[in-house]
Amino acid sequence: MDTSRLDLNLLVTLEALLTERNVTKAAARLGLSQPAVSAQLSRLRDVFEDPLLLPAQRGMTPTAKALSLFEPLRQALDQVRGVASSHLHFEPGSAELTVTIAASDYLQASVLRPLVLRLRREAPGVRIAVRHLDPHQHAAQMARGDVDLGLMQPIEAADSLRLRPLFHERYVLIARRGHPAVSGRLTAKAFSKLEQVVVSPAGGAFSTPVDQALAGLGLTRQVVLSAASFLFVPDIVGRSDLVALVPERLVKGQAAGLQVLPPPLPIDGFDIAMVWHERNHGHAAQRWLRDQVFAIAGPRARAGTDAAPS
User: Fold this and answer.
1) Residues of the chain with pLDDT under 70
2) Beta strands per DSSP E along the chain
3) What is the pTM of this model?
4) What is the pLDDT of residue 307?
5) Are 52 and 63 in contact (CB under 8 A)?
6) CB under 8 Å to 47, separation ≥6 — which residues?
7) H-helix or E-strand spanning residue 145
8) Count of CB atoms within 10 A of residue 75's CB?
9) Of 233, 241, 234, 277, whose CA–CA distance to 256 is shortest?
10) pLDDT of residue 192
């Protein structure tokens, strides 16, 4: 193969094509026109003397040669990107880039919302693409470069990822102000008699570990609503006589019209960390962004002090 006919742009285009398996999507990923990407694909076919991608019913199907090239190509380009970016000085006020962050709905509200507001002030050229976290796909998404940073429970994070703890979350009980049966801390028995909302991310479940804890006390609670998202819960509680157990940060600073009370029985909390792929570890902009997340959600943030950089 005549490597003099190759240039870095062609290899970047090949990586995008093999990732997206669609010329239009690859063009959007690269910020190029569809005809430009089609022309580069034609050049790549000549250089490699192989069709590389064949038309299919939906998108394109890579050839055997293309599949054998994909992982070595990605690794080589990752090394080039790392060399090119590791010594760059990041200027938040003038930088322009897009960062993709994956998080659950609750973490989008409690961590990403204040992060975005901070970025609008300090780094207006930084765009954030928010994706719902898929615990089963997060490692592959980060390896492909589809996700730059994830917010999740550390016990769910793949061993291949870098990790930094953020905070320990605890549950609180919320009820509307003026609730006829709630005015201060409740006993487990009083709690069990109230109509309640639970959150079932998978959908439809009316039982959680709280019900097991209540059963140990000989109690059964009245769950009348199973929600798919935590974001729905504070509003419906504030407009009804329903109550709910929710992560404390979900209602921190957003509890107008709500009573926020200690849980009526011991409930285990959970830890939250940010995770990222090795490919992003030395990137100056990514490092700066991680520092902003830590400043907002790290353990010292709760005390109202600035966090130390990573």
Assistant:
1) 1-5, 82-89, 300-310
2) 53-55, 60-62, 97-103, 126-132, 149-152, 162-169, 171-176, 195-199, 222-227, 243-247, 258-261, 270-276
3) 0.68
4) 36
5) yes
6) 1, 2, 5, 6, 10
7) none
8) 11
9) 234
10) 95
